[in-house]
Each structure stands twice: as structure tokens, then as C-alpha cells.
Amino acid sequence: MSWREGMAQIAAPKAGFSMDALATYLSERRIPNLMDSMESAGEYTAKVVSNILAFARNDQQFKVSTDIGALLTDTRELARNDFDMKKGYDFRNIQIHVHHDTVLSKVECHPTMIQQVILNIFKKGPGR
């Protein structure tokens, strides 16, 4: 049983109606879909904030073993949340496809430095 179902079992009798009536009411108003969308948006936001914080820290003095594929994916997500009205770019409207060798082993590097280079390529690449 999910936490929502547990809360509903408590709330329905207190409000004076059955679980079936509550389920029908919520379903007709698409409340479960709305809650699922809100949960997904919250998870996405948490991932974006985590990526931004990791990028902003930049406290690595030594090279670390880095999964380049994951680094490229994280960098693409950072770029997707970049918007500059003065320069006229909005990465939400630009498709960025990441293709890399899945067999590629981890590479010793400074991940934030690599991310900065990739972001600069995105921002100053063709058409900029």
C-alpha cells in the first residue's frame, strides 16, 4: 500500500464517505495524475539542483576516475537549464544528442573542468 492509499484510508471515514467514493472523486478530477506529475517534477528538479551544486563546487584539486558518458549526460542536463535572454539562446529549444562509446572506461580527469569546456563548446559552437 502506498502512502497515498494509507492517507486516503484515514481521510475518507473522517470526511464521512467511503474509499470507493473518494477514489471516484479523485479519479474524475485526475488528481492521481496531477500528483504523479508533481512527484516527477520534484525528482527532476532535485537532479538538476544536484548537478548544479556538483558543478559549482569545483573543489577537486586532484584528478578523479570519471565516467565520461555520465559526465556528458550531466553536462547536457546543465546546458538544458541554461537560458540567456541577452545572447538569445535557450537550450530547452535545442536538441543535444550525446553519443559515446559505451565500452569506454573511466578516465582520470578534473570533471568540472571538462564540463566547463563542454558547456563552452555548446554555447559558442556552430551558429553562435
Would you count the extended β strands for me? 4
What general outline do the C-alpha atoms trace?
elongated
Strand order of the largest sheet: 1-4
How many domains is the backbone divided into?
A: 2
The arrangement of helices and strands along the chain is HHHEHEEEH
Count of helical regions: 5
C-alpha Rg, in Å?
22 Å
Overall pLDDT metric: 78
Low-pLDDT stretches: none
Q: Note the beta-strand portion.
A: 5-15%
Main sheet: strands, sense, barrel: 2 strands, antiparallel
Oligomer: single chain
Residue share in helix? 55-70%
Backbone structural class: mainly alpha
Span of the ends, CA to CA: 52 Å
Description of the molecule:
With 128 residues, this protein is mainly α. It contains five helices and four strands. The protein folds into two domains: 1-41, no CATH class; 58-128, no CATH class. Helix 4 (68-80) crosses helix 5. It is elongated and about 60 Å long.
